[in-house]
């Protein structure tokens, strides 16, 4: 028999406190009735002896200790899933936001998921082409990888995310089984409309599942949004055999919500006020990406986070970097030079790239041309620093060559139009064209055979 609790101890922001409870579990979902008619949902986030603290998924306005009743469901939050979710939009707790009607399924899935057994993991190999040269050539995205984008407030990460969704593709034999799960946390109305409009115009909406938590939605819902998105991705990947690309934006909004709720629960804060369990909480999201032995599908994750004050040592990017397999870093300085996408290639890397490129995957010269571009662009930064001291006119001819390489690299290779979709072959050919500015003897990261086959000095 299900018990009904008719009085609360107190209401504190999005939390309600209840005492004298029995047989209640952590993460259990509750039904909350206000004034006998207004129904809300919540979940148990803390239990101490006979007291339970419940997060309410909606506003607590109008709630009082004597007009609210609580029913415990005896189960955690579950959402119904089927292949019909493709092309649909849901809110942060998996309820339909569009006009497509409810999803009917014989099975419901726990949004908290379970960590993938390391023994059951399959090592990622094949690459995903994004059509963006700075990513495809220099920080290649591998299917089953988690590769975050580190950005800053006011930068063009939304445009980059939308472009990746529109252009991302895998090998042609698996193209029909490719889809995208898009989870947005704390985004503004105009950003949400921007994504939907772009997906519709590009004709990719039918292969995208959207979970959107808007800026004025409850912060509690923000905590659940990525878990709903990842649960949908796991269903599509491991039960429907699809290759799923999950894009989560903005992880910083998620962490801010976590910090606010932690403060309301009066937990002891850690670095910059974030809860001490921030690392394990982020890991519970990121580690749901991967491939499993015996399963056809895969989950690839691109979390996007805005670094507060562009500080890469801030706890959110710092902890994210420990968990994930590389990062793509956007630079405000490069964006101010009117270059899109403003990827700073030097701090960017993909740790799994080496096993998914080269002969049989992309092209035989990929690894070496990538290493050479990193080395040359690093040298460019040294020459720029020297030029600021002695003036560009006093540089040697070789240093002037490097300065020209840097300008051409940024304006021809890094820079591309928002709707420009470059094939991998085109990207690698363009890399060789840019390297043609430098003398052959400077290309010391490339083997003689590859150099003879691909290098061609640029005509002046």
From TrEMBL:
Gene3D superfamilies for the chain: 3.40.50.12240
Record keywords: ATP synthesis, Hydrogen ion transport, Hydrolase, Ion transport, Transport
Domain ATPase F1/V1/A1 complex alpha/beta subunit nucleotide-binding as annotated: residue spans: 131-350
InterPro entries: ATP-synt_VA_C, ATPase_a/bsu_AS, ATPase_F1/V1/A1_a/bsu_N, ATPase_F1/V1/A1_a/bsu_nucl-bd, P-loop_NTPase, V-ATPase_su_B/beta
Biological process according to GO: proton motive force-driven plasma membrane ATP synthesis
Record has NADP as a keyword: no
Domain (ATP synthase A/B type C-terminal) ranges: 355-455
All copies of domain ATPase F1/V1/A1 complex alpha/beta subunit N-terminal, residue ranges: 10-74
Positions in coiled-coil regions: none
A GO MF term: ATP binding
Function comment: Produces ATP from ADP in the presence of a proton gradient across the membrane. The V-type beta chain is a regulatory subunit.
Assigned protein family: Belongs to the ATPase alpha/beta chains family.
NCBIfam families (UniProt xref): PRK04196.1
Name listed for the protein in its UniProt record: V-type ATP synthase beta chain
């Amino acid at each position: 028999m299900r018990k009904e609790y008719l009085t609360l101890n107190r209401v504190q922001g999005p939390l309600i406190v209840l005492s004298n409870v029995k047989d209640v579990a952590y993460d259990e979902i509750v039904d909350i009735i206000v004034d006998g008619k207004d129904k809300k949902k919540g979940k148990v986030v803390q239990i101490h002896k006979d007291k339970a603290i419940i997060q309410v998924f909606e506003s607590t306005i109008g709630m009082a200790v004597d007009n609210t009743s609580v029913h415990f469901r005896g189960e955690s939050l579950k959402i119904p899933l089927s292949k019909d979710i493709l092309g649909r939009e849901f809110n942060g707790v998996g309820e339909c936001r569009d006009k497509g009607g409810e999803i009917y399924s014989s099975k419901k899935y726990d949004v908290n998921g379970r960590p993938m057994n390391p023994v059951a993991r399959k090592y990622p190999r094949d690459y995903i082409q994004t059509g963006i040269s700075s990513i495809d050539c220099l920080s290649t995205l591998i299917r089953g990888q988690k590769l975050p984008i580190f950005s800053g407030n006011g930068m063009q990460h939304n445009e980059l995310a939308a472009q990746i969704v529109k252009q991302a593709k895998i090998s042609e034999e698996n193209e029909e089984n490719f889809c995208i799960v898009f989870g947005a946390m704390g985004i503004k109305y105009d950003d949400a409309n921007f994504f939907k409009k772009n997906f519709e115009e590009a004709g990719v909406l039918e292969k995208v599942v959207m979970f959107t938590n808007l800026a004025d939605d409850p912060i509690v819902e923000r905590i659940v949004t990525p878990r709903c998105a990842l649960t949908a991705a796991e269903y599509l990947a491991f039960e429907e055999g699809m290759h799923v690309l999950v894009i989560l934006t903005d992880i910083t909004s998620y962490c801010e919500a976590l910090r606010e709720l932690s403060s309301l629960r009066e937990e002891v804060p850690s670095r910059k006020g974030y809860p001490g369990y921030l690392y394990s909480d982020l890991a519970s999201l990121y580690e749901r990406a991967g491939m499993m032995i015996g399963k056809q599908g895969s989950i690839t994750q691109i979390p996007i986070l805005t670094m507060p004050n562009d500080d890469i040592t801030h706890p959110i990017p710092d902890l994210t970097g420990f968990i994930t397999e590389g990062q793509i870093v956007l630079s405000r300085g490069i964006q101010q030079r009117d270059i899109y996408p403003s990827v700073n290639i030097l701090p960017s890397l993909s740790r799994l790239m080496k096993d998914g490129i080269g002969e049989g995957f992309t092209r035989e010269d990929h690894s070496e041309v990538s290493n050479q571009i990193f080395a040359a662009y690093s040298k460019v930064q040294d020459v720029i620093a020297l030029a600021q001291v002695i003036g560009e006119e006093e540089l040697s001819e070789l240093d002037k060559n490097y300065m020209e390489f840097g300008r051409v690299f940024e304006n021809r290779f890094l820079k591309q139009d928002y709707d420009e979709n470059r094939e991998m072959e085109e990207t690698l050919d363009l890399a060789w064209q840019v390297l043609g500015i430098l003398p052959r003897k400077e290309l010391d990261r490339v083997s003689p055979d590859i150099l003879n086959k691909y290098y061609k000095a640029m005509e002046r």
